[in-house]
Sequence to fold (226 residues):
Amino acid sequence: DAGVTQSPTHLIKTRGQQVTLRCSPKSGHDTVSWYQQALGQGPQFIFQYYEEEERQRGNFPDRFSGHQFPNYSSELNVNALLLGDSALYLCASSSVIGLWEQYFGPGTRLTVT
Amino acid sequence: AQKITQTQPGMFVQEKEAVTLDCTYDTSDPSYGLFWYKQPSSGEMIFLIYQGSYDQQNATEGRYSLNFQKARKSANLVISASQLGDSAMYFCAMRNSNYQLIWGAGTKLIIKP
Fold:
């Protein structure tokens, strides 16, 4: 049973560029949440997708957007990258029935130079 | 405002000793959940233990137990018989009524041989 997978593992981008991160949820899960974890800090909730729609959103600017596909996989897009966007981006999947039980992927480490 | 506070930035513990990691929370929601996650240097968040706000008994999972004191709004993690592999960052998190996870800043635990 495959767990949550994320790609790519590492990414280096330049200020002003755009980036897309990908997440495949654990088998049987239909809800995907994205988190940003800056170095030395706890994760911050970005948004959550269910039934291909954004259901919840944290305190992040519109430069952060996402998408969920019919197979429940998800993408996180960040436009006009800033140095402060450098972080570990974590994807977590869950079932809408058991939203409390979130399984995390290994994360994508984004470095903006 | 909903908040998680972890007051111990770092801890050193001798192998085989028990360790308590502190967590206090602040919320006005009557229903919430409290989590502990372990994050090794690889970056993946590993679920350890969960306590619901209405659970009467403290949660236990193997060597992990959660000391839940609702009146004091604390949810400390106790690890019995610590092992070298327990060295990692530990995060306390709270699920709010919108099913968002709010995270503490984490505690870095180092187990000494």
User: Anything to note?
Assistant: Chain B touches chain A through 24 residues (CB under 8 Å).
